[in-house]
Amino acid sequence: MLVTGSEILQDAHKNGYAVGAFNINNMEIIQAIIEAAEETRSPVILQASQGGIKYAGIEYISALAKVAAERSTVPVAVHLDHGTDFVQVVKCIRYGFTSVMVDASKYPLEENIAMTNKVIEIAHAVDVSVEAELGKIGGTEDHIKVDEREATMTNVDEAVRFVEETGVDSLAIAVGTAHGVYKGKPELDFDRIKAIKEKTNIPLVLHGSSGVAYEDLEKAVSLGINKINIDTDVRMAFADAIKDFLKDNIDEIDPRKILKPARANMSQVVAEKMRVFGSAGRA
Ligand code: G3H
Ligand code: ZN
Fold first, then answer.
1. pTM of this prediction?
2. Residues in Cβ contact with 92 at an 8 Å cutoff, skipping those fewer than 6 apart
3. What is the per-residue pLDDT across 100-150, written as a single tens digit (0 to 9) for each?
4. Which ligand is nearest to the CA of 52?
5. What is the number of the ligand 1 atom nearest to the C-alpha of 209?
6. For a substitution probing ligand 1, which of 22, 25, 80, 232 has the most ligand atoms within 8 Å of its CB?
């Protein structure tokens, strides 16, 4: 069933677990995620980035995601990931997304608050949930020196002010993770997660969660993370299965035969994550 982001995240916040938010670009990825959610009886968030929307087209991706949500027997939210463009955010609301992320994290605090409030006014008028970002969650390719690390992390006092002045539904925080494939082991700032949770008491979001050790993710969840974003690990499951299949079947031309093992592999990876995040059995 199609639900708002808040319906899913409020339950996770109250009961101390996290829900996976997996990036979608095509039908097979959506089907793989929904299959895993059904199998593990887990609520789930299907999220499309601005790049994903550009690739598939907003009509296609919103229609595919909504059909998947409406046909499923578990709660599913359809979410815009990293909405940096105001027009794109509003378009997603018009196309039936039940949750949007407004990402104004590159701006100074006041501007971030102002842009977030602009989106909240529109989104909340039509019962769409809003996630914002505070701090800078970079890519693994961004080389940040140890002494600069602190500056990129979410400041606890700023988080309190941000939540008070916006009333945002959930907050993405920078606590040591990054987007993409890690070169070394990511070091999460668990004390920071704990402090932000205690002082804001709202659902918190962890981005760049692919490649993070499961024990670290479990600890992050126990300290207050309620939404875990995964893209890279699903991409890898997709690509690995296709490479594997074509290695033994180089003459195969049927897209269904090539994509079927990829869909199955992605579903397995997603189901495993749902068990780790604690969302399995919650639907
Ligand atoms: O917003 C999307 C995520 O933060 C995905 O990050 O590709 O490192 O899993 P990831
Ligand atoms: Zn992200």
1. 0.97
2. 48, 53, 58, 62, 80, 83, 100
3. 999 999 999 999 999 999 999 999 999 999 999 999 998 876 777 777 788
4. 1
5. 9
6. 232
